[in-house]
User: What shape does this take?
Amino acid sequence: MAGFDDLASERSKAQFDVEEMKVIWAGSRHTLEVSDRISRLVANDPVFRKDTRTMLSRKDLFKNTLRKAAHAWKRIIELRLSEEEAAELRFYVDEPAFMDLHWGMFIPTIKGQGTEEQQQKWLPLAYKMKIIGCYAQTELGHGSNVQGLETTATFDPQTDEFIIHSPTLTSSKWWPGGLGKVSTHAVVYGRLIIDSKDYGVNGFIVQLRSLDDHLPLPGITIGDIGMKFGSGAYNTMDNGVLRFDHVRIPRDQMLMRVSQVTREGKLVQSNVPWQLVYGTMVYVRQKIVSDASCALSRAVCIATRYSAVRRQFGLQSNGIETQVIDYKTQQSRLFPLLASAYAFRFVGEWLKWLYMDVNQRLQASDFSTLPEAHACTAGLKSLTTSATADGIEECRKLCGGHGYLCSSGLPELFAVYIPACTYEGDNIVLLLQVARFLIKTVSQLGSGKEPVGTTVYMGRVEQLMQCHCAVQKAEDWLKPSVILEAFEARSMRMSVASAQNLAKFDNQEEGFLELSADLVQAAVAHCQLIVVSKFIEKLQQDIPGKGVKGQLEALCNIYALFILHKHLGDFLSTGCITPKQASLANAQLRSLYSQVRPNAIALVDAFNYTDHYLSSVLGRYDGNVYPKLYEEAWKDPLNDSVVPDGYQEYIQPILKQQLRNARL
Ligand SMILES: CCCCCCCCCCCCCCCCCCCCCCCCCC(=O)SCCNC(=O)CCNC(=O)[C@H](O)C(C)(C)COP(=O)(O)OP(=O)(O)OC[C@H]1O[C@@H](n2cnc3c(N)ncnc32)[C@H](O)[C@@H]1OP(=O)(O)O
Ligand SMILES: Cc1cc2nc3c(=O)[nH]c(=O)nc-3n(C[C@H](O)[C@H](O)[C@H](O)COP(=O)(O)OP(=O)(O)OC[C@H]3O[C@@H](n4cnc5c(N)ncnc54)[C@H](O)[C@@H]3O)c2cc1C
Assistant: This one.
């Protein structure tokens, strides 16, 4: 049978130790063990089946998600799963639900923005899920512009309460996940008003529904905002709308780590920077970067396995056609995505470390690294989610016609993933934040303030503005120092050029708007440099296992040279490389593809995904694609009857009509 033999023979060609690569991908032997165990637990539990998800009506889909969430919670308690294991369980259940916002945003917001007392009061309730919370920031009229939110929280000194109100239609909360049908509580962001004075946006804990009968509390209007893109996909989530009509909450339900309102109605600022009100977004953006590698690797795993099973043209002497993975065009589209999945994995690992470091510093009142953490999380969230969304769609095309079937797993993966380019900050808006950070860094060069962290390279501005790439032959592009210098020089020159152009404007804000398209490109260049440099740093660590390091080096070079090839205009126009060096990079890239080719299946096996998680007939581990595709088609509800419903009303009359006309 084609698929079985093809994948088995591919696996036998691997030139590296797949088991050791699994450890590298997972992050540690311990993480691999947890992930492996939990993925099997989910795969073997019938409640977590998802094969009919794209065919369910919204109501059935949502109820099924509630059932899965309740079952997941029950299993977490029964099996006494740790936080790490519970998070893995959520990952493998593979269904967006209110739990994500409760654990991923509501709880972190109380932790990050609540005082000690507030944490003591609310966190035990939230951890035991005696209350379920969501994150209600975005409104109908404003999402990106958080300072433009219109919901008001007016202090009433008579009763020691805040009055939460939606003064306009556009102030209706709109989008929060988990809000529509489930959450009992929300962190609501609104304008703090004291004595008619507006003190800007702050977070407030508001109870939305009764804990007895789940009905909305007086003054609260609440519902789901409707069907979203694709079948199944993000429709398992109850993204909601919420309006307040003068709803009163006690004063101590304003999150008061950043600023406090006293009983007398005085606003007291603590030593914490006000930007901490945006803190949850930094946390979630970091999570989203880690998740990007999961979504991309999943699509790549499907497309790679199928590309080894699928044969078209090129009949060989043994009577078999060519595996499509052997076409150079297929390789040049697929292997950069494989390399990107690994690159995003490692940059996500690093970002997790950076976030933990910033968090520890914040606990100790050291706020110095917050701006860089904001720039890195914003920029990398934007870069990785855009590339992943495009990558999933490319994987669908790499699978030809069958990729368009829901049973390939790719349409739903695409539909569920693409909002990541918008939520937690629109990707362009986030790149503009990075650009502001870069311009600020460039403007401070020479002022005695040394650039730190990911901008350290900017301290070598003079060298990077003048250096010439040393590449003379294709293999020179394999040297990490050569790649790094080219990426650093490109980013430096683009940031400096933007800063110089900006300086020509009398009004900096006007200049920023006018030059924003260039500024976004400079931000992309900086973020790509971070990804490349973190991959290179990873390779400097001790990497055990036969051939593992060699494969990772090839993937790192593919990622870097593919980006160089894609953004050749930047590298050439800034004079970082010559046209000759560009064509040498391309030649090197081709040879790297040949190096990866025999290892491609093993490199996707290293993700250690179960067939349940992949939920793709094309990506099956055993490669048994055709019989299963055939079997799958018959399961469609349309095939329940041979003659379809509607035949007598709609098909037969047409046929009869034609008959009459023909007789005339
Ligand atoms: C069934 C299964 C069951 C299983 C059960 C299992 C059970 C158990 C399970 C257990 C485990 C489950 C786990 C699940 C986890 C899941 C994860 C979560 C997934 C969530 C999904 C995601 C959902 C999506 C949620 C959302 O979507 S939520 C909404 C997000 N919304 C946005 O993202 C708005 C963007 N807009 C802005 O972020 C700003 O508005 C703007 C543009 C910056 C302008 O900001 P503005 O202040 O106007 O102006 P600037 O001047 O630019 O900034 C002013 C100054 O502040 C600075 N600064 C701006 N920012 C920041 C910032 N952050 N931080 C620091 N500084 C900042 C800036 O540098 C400047 O500094 P300076 O230069 O002054 O020094
Ligand atoms: C699936 C999903 C789940 C969500 N979950 C939540 C949630 O749980 N809680 C919550 O509070 N919110 C949630 N959101 C809302 C989300 O955070 C916002 O939609 C997001 O921040 C983008 O804001 P916006 O919709 O206002 O886009 P807009 O800002 O209106 O963007 C529209 C266009 O304008 C451009 N644009 C905007 N500003 C600028 C600028 N300054 N310069 C250049 N271009 C600009 C953008 O690039 C974009 O092309 C969710 C959204 C989605 C899609």
